[in-house]
Amino acid sequence: MDAVVVPMEHGLALAAVLFSIGLIGVMVRRNIILILMSVEVMLNACGLAFIVAGAKWGAADGQIMFMLILSIAAAEVVVGLGLLLQVHRRVGSIDIDETSRLRG
Amino acid sequence: MSDQQLLAILPHILLTTVILIQMMVIAFARNLRTTVAISVIALILTGLAFIPVYSLIPIMVTPLIVLDGYAIYYSGLILMSSTAVTLMAYDYFKDRGEKQDEFFMLLLFATLGALILVCSSHFASMILGLELLGVSIYTMISYPHKGLLTLEAALKYLILSGVSSTFILFGAALIYAVGGKLGFAELASVALETRDSGEIFLTAGSALIFAGIMFKLSVTPFHMWTPDVYEGAPAPVTAFVATVSKGAIFAITLRLFTSSNLIEVPSILTGLSVVAILSMLVGNLLALRQDNVKRILAYSSIAHLGYLMVAFIAAGMIGGKVLAIEASSYFLFAYFITTLGAFGVVTIVSLPNTEADAGDISNYEGLFWRRPMLAIMFTLTLLSLAGIPLTVGFIGKFYIFTAGVTTTLWLLLSVVIIGSGIGIFYYLRIIFAMTKRTETDVTKIEIPIAGGWVMASVTAAILFFGIYPTPIVNLINNLVLSIT
């Protein structure tokens, strides 16, 4: 076999980088849509890590976990966007600082 | 799947079926009383369905779900708590406009998630349970549509809970990369094999999972969302978040880390000790500065989770596992009924004002003269939270102490003592506010029937099990110690 095999560590490193990008996005972004997108990036980074790990073990578990993550992400984002609509209707803005009334 | 396995997950199947029936009933004949009745009957039936399961335990149902005594005990706690929250929520929502029925469906969904969580033995079912619980709770928090406060609380909870789920998932992925296993019991061999080689993935994975779980349990330094969510959410939902959600997540954490031996990774134990000490100190100290009863209870819950962490750490020490599981199970029982009592009072006091919950401490001034029974019940729950003898909270704290002494965790124990000492101040502050004679703002507080029953049984339980804890201790010994 002369196919080039990507080592597992590389895949995991990529997933870790994506995860960090998402985490930074959640922390620095002020637009709620972008925060939700950053959470999506983090979830998909987890999915990538599962697929890479699953490929190493040659088992389907990793891919099944990825499908589970996909459906979870969808459910989470549906509720998130629903809340976002309500916030926009009430405040006229989707900036998280402008919606902040609680002391934190 | 064999008949026995089907029988073992009968409670979950039953609850799912009833939720679907309830959905149909709401669609065709919307009536709040009927919906609540279906909810209560569903919860009781699910509880009864656990009786035949008792003769089968321990039993694995696919690699995803295990039903053992531990799962049954915590399922019982969850069902009890959900029933109380359902009754409280009925009082809360019945005078707040139309279309409140779906709330009770969401409550059942969240309960189902918690039930799956406590009996999961695999990362997939754990994530499924966590999300079923979480997504239902976001919606429950924002359900009343009263204003920005609830929306903001829901949004904050959604983002932070989502982020913490990704932490757990990424940690699970790393552990899977090392061991190729996702079931908790199989992880034990992985943890043993890789411990000496200093496997960095395993430590990083467990640390990430822990960080995610700490977020959901709201212990310091991941506690920032708690006071906001407690304040913004409607009082019955706060009671649900404080009891069912935290209890179920703690139960699964204990199962995950004891059955997989991951807790014995030394760096994890050190990290946990720091987290426990910080929670006890920060929770109690910040509660001193609050004027809002819901926020005080939030900080008090942070401190209580800190106490619980002491038992958790004891589980990782040599010879501490059995006692620690016993201690945390009793402590959680005490915490459940006491917290339900406290938020039950907040719910009842909030009933006359449909605009916002009675958070500010001034709402409670003179309660002793206006509603003596309610004030006495609240005093009792606060004393139980403070851990005064003859209440159930004292026995819970005593158990934590025993677990700590057996495993010689002296530093942690001294912080428990300091924390409890500080705690008495702010609990007494609420009690003193209730005894104050006030002429202003004499809003009429009626004790509703459903909420009144909940409060009466909770108060009775706090006193009874505070004086005579043997029934619960026996139950725990019979059920919980069979953890697999």
Protein architecture, described:
- The complex is a heterodimer of chains A (104) and B (484).
- With 104 residues, chain A is an all-alpha fold.
- Chain A is built from three helices and no strands.
- Chain A starts with 7 loop residues before the first helix and ends in a 13-residue tail after the last helix.
- Chain B is an all-alpha fold and 484 residues long.
- In chain B, 77% of the residues lie in helices and 1% in strands.
- Chain B has helices at residues 3-8, 10-28, 32-54, 69-94, 101-118, 123-141, 148-179, 184-195, 200-217, 225-232, 235-259, 266-288, 293-316, 321-350, 367-370, 372-386, 392-406, 410-435, 449-467, 470-479, and strands spanning 59-61, 65-67.
- Chain B has a two-stranded antiparallel ribbon with strand order 1-2.
- Chain A binds chain B through residues 8, 12, 15, 19, 22-23, 26, 32, 35-36, 39, 42-43, 45-46, 49-50, 52-54, 56-57, 59, 61-62, 64-65, 68-69, 72, 75-76, 79-80, 83-84, 86-87, 90-91, 96, 99-104, and chain B through 123-124, 127-128, 131, 134-135, 138-139, 142, 145, 147-149, 151-156, 158-159, 162-163, 165-166, 169-170, 172-174, 176-177, 180, 182, 224, 227-228, 231-232.
